[in-house]
Specification:
53% of the residues lie in helices and 9% in strands. With 339 residues, the protein is of the alpha/beta class.
Amino acid sequence: MPSLFSEAYADIVQGLASRAFSDDADWQKLIVRARRMAGAHGFEASEAGLAEDLRKKLRKADTSGTNEAASLFAGAGENLSGKGANPMVAGDLGKRLGALKTLRHTYFLRRFGGHKVWCVDIPPAFTDWPCSALRGDLAAVSARLDARAERFSEERRKYLGDASQEALKWVHKAMMVTSGAAKPKHFELLARWFADGASKDKDVLSAAATLNAGLKKITATLKSGRLVYCDSVSERGSPELDGVEAFVWGDPLDVVYIEEEFFGSRNTLQGLTNWARIVVHELTHRDVKTKDHAYEHQGINPRKLTAAKAIENADSWAWFCADCAGALTSGQIKNALDR
């Protein structure tokens, strides 16, 4: 079973609890802030600036001739001078290093309009989470510590922030529709995605109530300041992830795993519209426990799928939210419902 981000996060908290970090005053200030940032229930937005300040410290050391690995070892309280042949990095030190390395690659994507999300962007040099990977042979550990090229890149992190902001806009629009379900235009939108031939008016209004309750949960997640995007680091290279856009996987923390196909071009929708659809789709799984009865390319017309399955179907929720926000063309709506 792959290692979840929530498990890696627990290692970060444990690593930061150590009293073995550097006693240098600047490092001590950063570590105190890191402990506040890595709270008991997830990252704390109030201390989001810590990650950038950590990166600044490492960049400053780098310009003065100290590579990133050496700086992180120093911050973790380890003096590498005088080590014997073939020195090894043990578990406790590995967790301290892993905590610092993970926070160094953690980004707070947005903080306006109540929208606050994180991206943990671990370099491709890692095939497991840093707290687990940074142990063993010193040379190998140092090479991973000094790896700086990130999985997503600054551009793709921006896309993730944009996708979340767009998703939140969609969800707000959909909540307006579901809370005013009796209005003819709103009722028509609801029936389009969630009514079959046997549905009565009361059934559509009941679906509206179910949707509204679920959308409130998704809104809370998007605005909580604790939603994390990352890839499944421990599964990198797995053929099971080929063609996967994103998924959620039983984390007690709010985590959406973003894979390469998220940024692909094989979906009906493209760019920001598709990215927002994926975010809504995955958060319905996380917060509402929806299922994947059918994806849009398989056909999500509720008259074929049935209303009972449509209200459980993640892509039905996502396309409904997009429709409420005016993000779909008439042709896209027709194609989704005619398959």
